Amino acid sequence: MAKQREIRDPIHGFIQRSELEEKIIDTKVFQRLRGIKQLAMANLVYPGAMHTRFGHSIGVMHVAGIMAKKLLPGDEDTIRTIRLSALLHDIGHGPFSHVSEDIVDKYYYKSKIKPKSKEKIHELITAEIIRKDSEIKKHISNTESDKIIGLLSGTRGESIEKSIISGPLDADKQDYLLRDSYFCGVKYGVFDPDRLVSTLSLYDDQQDTILAASQDGVYAIEQFVLAKYHMATQVYRHKIRLVTDAMIIRALELGIEVDKIEWLNNLYAFDGTEEYINNYLQWDDARLINALLYGADQATFAADIFRRLKNRELFKTVFRKSLREIESAEVRDFLANIKKENGFCKIVEEQIADYLSSQMSCKIEAKHVIVSTFSIKSVREQSRNDAGSIIILNNSGTPRYFEDESTLFRSIDERENDRCIEAYAPFKYIDDVDKRKKKACFNEDIQNILEASAKTFLSERRDKK
Asked: What are the CA-CA distances from residue 40 to residues 3, 180, 229, 334 (Å)?
């Protein structure tokens, strides 16, 4: 009798793995994921959030396998490919997971490999690792590697296979909601995965076979979508989480652009070469932090910010405003997209630094002022993703969109999205009373700075045309 290969997981219980999956898990490239935390520095808010991409990837493999067996019973070759794809889907993540993706995308300029319109650089890195890593190649043939890469990129495979890997009800979301909720010590991400999967089925629309759910699954899907929405608002967009993410990104930008740290540039300037991938795979969260704090670069701007993070000397939110409160539609739309306006951000960050310095007895560096925007989609919009809406087969077998079939979601205004703009800086308050007074003043004054600068910027842009 073959030996049982089990992993005890706090979310799913015992997870079975095949001999091949065990070999993939034991590779150096997969073991590296133990050093990459799932939620970057969210542990500064939720102390238990120390979980990693390693456990998440195994959990996604497990959920994907359950979904595949339910939807594609007996198709062992396809189930195997789906499980391997799920296992390897995050293999290309760099230090701090999603947080540093902005940096990889920003400094991608030497690559000879051109991404497709929706393809992110970390997805290209994932494909390169699967295709070229010597240990993975020992266990997975080139043909199967191509299938896995195609399934992860959405360029190969049937729609039903791709929906398990990336779709509104995919295995990735099912695992990370439960896992992040558990390790953060909150209940926001809890839903009933067994009931959800049990209601899934196939629907043949004469052109394709797609993922659907029965009428009985509406309540389970409502619970799932609400879990996703609440995790977004209460955990992923937590005010301290937003600050720590912004500090990491600013530290890495300063390290590359101002400090001119060569090894940091080499880590994030993807060029598609084997040399780049080999170097990339040597880095995780701890190595990057230690290299900055204890190596030759400890006197740099980047090291200064990471030292603040390590000691939990975090920047404060000195301004926050919903863009719905901005009167001018032109200014509102401009501020919503300032991530694309690096020149504008630099100008207003200098102005805000001067303003805050006037409110204190010490100088605040413009490098330490961060203007950032974020959005939270309406709960109805979060019931789908780029792949489309969830299909519900009602009791007569007629396909309907989930948002139309659910009484709860049908009553929600699609337009109720919230876009916010914030500013962070190393500002200190005397006490809570001082904090309330200063923030009330800051909100009005910094909003005036942003609106006036935006109007000037837009006017100058029009004059140049």
From this structure: 36, 12, 20, 29
Q: Residue 372's beta-bridge partner residues?
A: 422
Q: 183 Cβ partners below 8 Å, 6+ apart? A: 38, 46, 48, 49, 50, 51
Residuewise pLDDT in 10s, the chain (465 residues): 445 689 999 999 999 999 999 999 999 999 999 999 999 999 999 999 999 999 999 999 999 999 999 999 999 999 999 999 999 999 999 999 988 888 888 887 555 556 655 567 788 899 999 999 999 999 999 999 999 999 998 888 888 999 999 999 999 999 999 999 999 999 999 999 999 999 999 998 777 888 999 999 999 999 999 999 899 999 999 999 999 999 999 999 999 999 999 999 999 998 888 999 999 999 999 999 999 999 999 999 999 999 999 999 999 999 999 998 999 999 999 998 887 776 899 999 999 999 999 988 789 999 999 999 988 776 666 656 544 688 999 888 889 988 888 888 776 655 556 789 999 999 888 888 888 888 889 999 999 999 999 999 898 888 876
Residue 50 CB coordination number (10 Å): 12
d(CA 79, CA 83): 6
Q: What would the two tokens of residue 155 be?
A: 């360029």
Evaluate if pTM is beyond 0.85: yes
For residues 59 and 175, is the Cβ–Cβ distance under 8 A? yes
> What is the maximum span of the chain, computed from C-alpha positions, in angstroms?
78
**Quick count: other Cβ atoms within 10 Å of Cβ 308?**
17
